[in-house]
């Protein structure tokens, strides 16, 4: 019987291992973490992350073949396959600060594996890491090996938060990179057999280690690039009277372009896109490719531009000042169906509004007041969208939660200051209907109301 241990019980480690456990009842899966509160939450009724369908999957196998533990060393020592799914944030100091990936957690996990292992191991990179990380990990493990044989595989995760369980049940592809040696191929095959329990063989791609590592960074860079491309178009649409939804639909019908990921918005967020592009930029610079580095940097610059353009639009529309005005923020998570606020555009938008002395009042169905306090160092949180918007001069919609489409906007309008503004950063509301109620509505990339046209945003 194969034993799997996963180091890191986060947004990736938790859901990924729960799905492996539910699909492979004969495999024992233990997820370990140094954070006791996180492990306690995984063992409780209130899981540490919100993800549609996750509760059911965890309930189906927890205590049977899925376990969560803080006894990291014991379970690593016992495992045949060790997934490493620790966080790999952007370095904040030292060489490469602000760009390079911080591999501190990864390195300490690797050293711990080397310390406690008594049998051969397959070590799987699940975290997103810079290309060539496997070489460094291999060195750490083999220099401390005590005669144990390690095989390093790269198996990057492509799940998206908010649809993690769906993505894991039916992945577009599973990617496994390994050494092109007999031992390497054997390790790739062993991991392939785990996924083959539910993923059709033709969807399991095997490559060399470097292709697998780089493909993850490349995939995130391409996805973020689509958002920045459509957001760049949204600014031009507002300037010309074109409608970005019509443009997206028209270009998305081209089968070479495709319809997905073409929604204009206040900007992308989440823990991965910015971090992984910065990482890619740094790798390009280190490899003497400044032109390539600058090309990808632009994807992030457009994202920053889109967030500040939104804030400028809000302020300029409201007579060039929001000082002392109540601005209700609907949605704080970086997208719907998650409570994750890492790198959410809402942080920058709120900071911009607070910088102009607005009174910001926030509502999000899945983000806690605690989290917002940590993100913004403020405590203005409402438990209800109607409470958040009461007495407000403006409403900003920053996350595309379905419930925001169904709010009683007449009631909201009645309780707001006039003129009442809605700035829809996700294009979720029916702008025409809201204009009928009396709102002044801004929708990203759509023809502007006469009011907004007269007060052009200073970008
Ligand atoms: P996370 O921060 O939610 O989870 C990481 C966990 O690792 C934390 O609970 C932390 O306590 C634990 N940890 C750190 N060092 C440890 C150690 N030495 N021993 C035991 N536990 C340790 O991070 P998340 O979001 O799960 O991301 C993990 C990796 O997966 C990152 O490299 C990320 O880029 C990548 N990824 C993330 C995706 C996402 O949507 N969040 C999607 C695909 C990949």
Describe this structure in words.
- The chain has 459 residues and is α/β, with parallel strands linked by helices.
- The chain has two domains: 3-199, Rossmann fold (3-Layer(aba) Sandwich); 210-459, Rossmann fold, CATH 3.40.50.720.
- The chain is built from 18 helices and 13 strands.
- The chain has helices spanning 13-23, 36-42, 54-61, 72-78, 104-116, 133-143, 164-169, 182-195, 209-240, 244-252, 273-286, 290-317, 345-355, 369-376, 385-389, 409-414, 431-437, 450-454, and strands at residues 3-7, 28-32, 66-69, 81-84, 121-125, 150-154, 174-178, 204-208, 326-330, 359-363, 394-397, 421-424, 440-443.
- A six-stranded parallel beta sheet has the order 3-2-1-4-5-6, with helices on both faces. Strands 10-9-11-12-13 form a five-stranded parallel beta sheet, with helices on both faces. Strands 7-8 form a two-stranded parallel sheet.
- β9, α13 and β10 (359-363) form a beta-alpha-beta unit.
- α5 runs parallel beside α6 (133-143) and α12 (290-317) packs across α13 (345-355).
- It is elongated.
- The chain starts with a strand and ends in a 5-residue tail after the last helix.
- The model has no long low-confidence stretch (mean pLDDT 96).
- The structure holds 1,4-dihydronicotinamide adenine dinucleotide.
């Amino acid at each position: 019987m194969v034993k799997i241990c996963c180091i890191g019980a986060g947004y990736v480690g938790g859901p990924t291992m729960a799905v492996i456990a539910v699909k492979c009842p004969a495999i024992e899966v233990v997820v370990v973490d140094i954070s006791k509160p996180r492990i306690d939450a995984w063992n409780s009724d209130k899981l540490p992350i919100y993800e549609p369908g996750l509760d059911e999957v965890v309930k189906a196998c927890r205590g049977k073949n899925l376990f969560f533990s803080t006894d990291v060393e014991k379970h690593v020592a016992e495992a045949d396959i060790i997934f490493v799914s620790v966080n790999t944030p952007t370095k904040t100091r030292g060489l490469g600060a602000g760009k390079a990936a911080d591999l501190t957690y990864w390195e300490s996990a690797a050293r711990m594996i080397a310390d406690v292992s008594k049998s051969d191991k397959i070590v799987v990179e699940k975290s997103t890491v810079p290309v060539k990380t496997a070489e460094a990990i291999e060195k750490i493990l083999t220099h401390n090996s005590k005669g144990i044989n390690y095989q390093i595989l790269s198996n990057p995760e492509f799940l998206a938060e908010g649809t993690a369980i769906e993505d894991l049940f039916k992945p577009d592809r599973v990617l496994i990179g390994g050494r092109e040696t007999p031992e390497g191929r054997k390790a790739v095959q062993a991991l392939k057999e785990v996924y083959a329990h539910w993923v059709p063989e033709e969807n399991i791609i095997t490559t060399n280690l470097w292709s697998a590592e780089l493909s993850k960074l490349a995939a995130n860079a391409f996805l973020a690039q689509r958002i920045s491309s459509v957001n760049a178009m949204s600014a031009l649409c507002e300037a010309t009277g074109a409608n970005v939804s019509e443009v997206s639909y028209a270009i998305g019908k081209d089968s070479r372009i495709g319809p997905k990921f073409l929604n204009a918005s206040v900007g992308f967020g989440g823990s991965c896109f910015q971090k992984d592009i910065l990482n890619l930029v740094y790798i390009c610079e280190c490899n003497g490719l400044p032109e390539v580095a600058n090309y990808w940097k632009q994807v992030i610059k457009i994202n920053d531009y889109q967030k500040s353009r939104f804030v400028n639009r809000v302020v300029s529309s409201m007579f060039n000042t929001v000082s002392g005005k109540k601005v209700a923020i609907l949605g704080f998570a970086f997208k719907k169906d998650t409570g994750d606020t890492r790198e959410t555009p809402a942080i920058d938008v709120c900071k911009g509004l607070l910088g102009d002395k607005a009174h910001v009042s926030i509502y999000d169905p899945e983000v806690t007041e605690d989290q917002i306090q940590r993100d913004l160092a403020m405590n203005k949180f409402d438990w209800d969208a109607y409470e958040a918007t009461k007495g407000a001069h403006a409403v900003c919609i920053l996350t595309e939660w379905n419930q925001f489409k169904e709010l009683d906007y007449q009631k909201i309008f009645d309780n707001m200051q006039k003129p009442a503004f809605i700035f829809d950063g996700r294009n979720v509301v029916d702008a025409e209907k809201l204009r009928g109620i009396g709102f002044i509505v801004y929708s990203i990339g759509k023809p502007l109301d006469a009011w907004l046209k007269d007060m052009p945003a200073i970008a």
